[in-house]
Each structure stands twice: as C-alpha cells, then as structure tokens.
Fold each of these.
Amino acid sequence: MVRALAITGLLLAPAAAVSAPWLAPSALAPPARGSGPPAVAGNDDGRAVAAWSTRDGVVATLRT
C-alpha cells in the first residue's frame, strides 16, 4: 500500500508542477524521529500530502 502511494506520488508530483507552475516547490522532510521514505499523494484540492510512519507507530503528515 505504501509503495503504491509512493509510486502514485511520483506520477502526480510532475503533473502538479506542470498544472500549477506558480506554486514554489517545497521540500518534503521526514519527521525528526526515525522513519522510512514518505508516501506522497494528492488530496481533493490538488495539493500534495506526504505521510511517514515512524518506528513507534506514529503517522506524521505534511500538507503543502
């Protein structure tokens, strides 16, 4: 599931950059605690959402 979201994010990110060139790109940085790579997806209004699952089971999200 996470891998599918990550792949989807890779496909959506370039499309979002082309459709909204006036938005400055933002770096997606993981939370301070240890975590794996983020799963990135688009939400209903076309903005990117990244989610990380940390080792202790906490899910952190970043919405642009």
Amino acid sequence: DEVAQARAPRQIALLDACRERLTGNLRAGAAEAAAAMSPTLEQAIGRARGQAILLGTTLGGYSYDDLAAKNGVFSSSLLEGLRGEAPGDDRDYITIRTLGEYVDERVREWVLRHRPEHAEVSRGITVHVEGAAAALPLALARQDPMDLPIHRLGPYARVKDLLEMEDLDGEDSLGLRLARLPAHSLARLDELLSGYRLRQEMRVARELRLTLGAAKTPDLDGYELRFRQETVPWSGGDFFGFEVLDGGRCLVYLGEVTGRGLGAMVGVSLLRNSLESLVRRGSGPVSEQIEELNRILKRDAPEARFFSLFAAILDSQNHRLEYVNAGHPAGFLLKREGLYELPSTAPILGIIDGISPQSTVLSLAPEDRLVLYTDGVMELENSSGEEFGLDRLRETLLAYPPGDSGDAFLDRLLADLESFSAGKPPADDQTVLTLKRLTA
C-alpha cells in the first residue's frame, strides 16, 4: 500500500518482482530479510553526518536512535529513507539515501576498473540504483535462487561489483548473497554495458529517421502521388522523398541504405540533402546529378554505407518522366496494355568512383501508374519461409483495377502482403510509392 501511494512505478515493479519469492512463512521471511538488511544499513548509517545506532529492521523498514542530537528513536520505511523523507533527514541526523550512494559508488568503481570506455555513462547506468537498493533486501526474504528478482531489477543491482565480491566485508550479507548469483548474471552485465551505447545510438537514429521520414506528397496538377511505409524495429534502411521544382516538375525518389543505426541515418540525410540540392541547381539530365551524387557519397558518407536509389523527375506539363535506377529493385510502369519493368541503369551508389549512369525518359498516358518499392516487399516471408517474390508481385499488381486511386491501390497491396505473411512478422521495412497520371 505504501509503495502504491508513493506513485513510484519503478519501485512498484521492483517490489512486485521480489514478492514472487515471498512464499512460505512470511513471518520467518521478514525476520530473515531484516537480518540481511542490517549489515548494509549499518554501513549506510555510519556514513551519515549524524551519529546513530540502528535499533532494528523490519521487512521494508528500520528504526534508529539518534544519539548525537538526543532526539530519541526514529522509525522509517526504506522508501521514505531513500527519498530523503525519513524523520530527521531535514536536520541531517541520518539519511538512508547514503545506502543508494554506497551502491552507486560500487557501480562506478566497477565501471572505471573493468569498462573504462563507459566511464562517461556510468552515471546514467546507476541513476535508478536507489530503487534497487530498496527492493533487494526484500528479495532476501527467501533462500531460493534470486535470478528471477535480479533479472527483473535490471542492470542496476547486477552491476554492484559482482566480479570483486571477495573484496567486500565478510559481514555484508547483501554482498555475499549477490556473490552467489548464477554465472549468467555476470554475462548479462557485460551484455548490458556493451549494448548501452548501441541503444543510445538507435534511439537517436529513430528520432532522426522520424524527421527524415516526414515526407508529404505534393499536389501536382493532373497527377496523384501516394506512399505507404511499414517499418520494423532495428531496421530503418528505407528512405524516400519529393521535391517540387520549377516549371511543373517534381523530383520523386526511393532508396535503401546498407546498415542500421545512426551512421545509416546520417548517410541518408547526406544523400537527400545533396540530391535535392543538385536537382534544384542542375539543368542537365538526371544522370549528371546522380553521377555527382555518387562522388559526394563516396567521399563523405559514413564508412561502408552504400545506397540503392530510384530517382525520377516528373515533367507534369509535358507528361514525361526521366529516371535513373542505381541498383534498386526494378520499378514498374503499369499501362492499360500491360506492365513494364524499369531495370537498373547505374550501379549502387557510394561504392566506386567514376560511374556513368544512364537516364531513361518515359511518356505517361492517362491512368499510367509508376510503382516503386523496396526489397522488403519482395522478401516478405510466410510461415513456410516462402518469399513473396518478384513474380508474385507482378501478378498481384496486374490484377488491380487501372482506375483505382492511389490510396485504394496501396490498401489492396498491403492487404495482399498481410494475407500472404499470415501473421509472420516482417524482417525488413516495406515501402511502396505510386505516381499516377489522372484522366483529363
């Protein structure tokens, strides 16, 4: 009840994890927990500014006598003490916050000794250690293996110098119990620390991706542009965009970058900004802008980042589409008489210097539809491991009514993809973009 009133979700979760081990005789468990708490609390009290004697501990609480100020006996719960709300805290008589500080220092010592490359993030790793300190004594109420509550507690309890437990005071019951944790806890600690920077990088990459992916379809007289994108965690290689130019022209592009994380998103940002700038300034064929874009990516993109790209400029006044396909899956042009593939006309970008892209120019009739997609569409698997594939994609697109709007067209395709996968989660992003010339 006290935890619930404290409105501390993290502490509630920690205590719930410990409660799963509080079975059997709870009175005996409370006594055992209190006995286990005492040595660690004594260490904490000894570090306080005032002088006090620990009189007793209960399950989740303690009492002490402040001898220096002669103010008598104080009683408090661990949660109050850790929040700095125990009686006497305002006068610096005693603060059990030092218990959290004690564990925090042990964590920092371990990080500096064993993982010095993480020294600058050690504060972030231990920021919640007080919640762990409040819950760990409760977990000691039973002699059962502690891997379940420790697993729930996360990295903060596990990093209490587990590799150096022999250096701790032999009367530190909490430390001795932690020292007997299963070996997988140490491996898990290494995993958590090594993954810390990766998680931070992926968080920044996701935020950057949201910014980069905030494309809006422009309004073009006589044309309809639509897109759909289904993303999966830890992926993020797909990108696309639109840039309205002068004279009724519009740049439309779709691509994919190798790799994941922040480096990939930085590469995408470089490509998008460079491509849009080159097209705005250039007056020659698209192939010239792509050739220059490749030089920029080869020189400035993060190491080992390569890009497939389908880039097209629509001339909405003359109903012409000029494109370069640099190593991207073949686009489709759906016409009343059939489906035409738009294969690669240049190599993947960012790998070699001196490429010679080739531009192709198409004439668009009313109801002609350009369809671009990423390889996550073709590589979508069903429960049997069978891929959707290029042939099935062709057949699927040919079956759609030519008069469908862009939204209806994409809704049909996504529904067919979902039906094929039968609930199996996709392994890669799926992005589809359509451009249709409307009937006059």
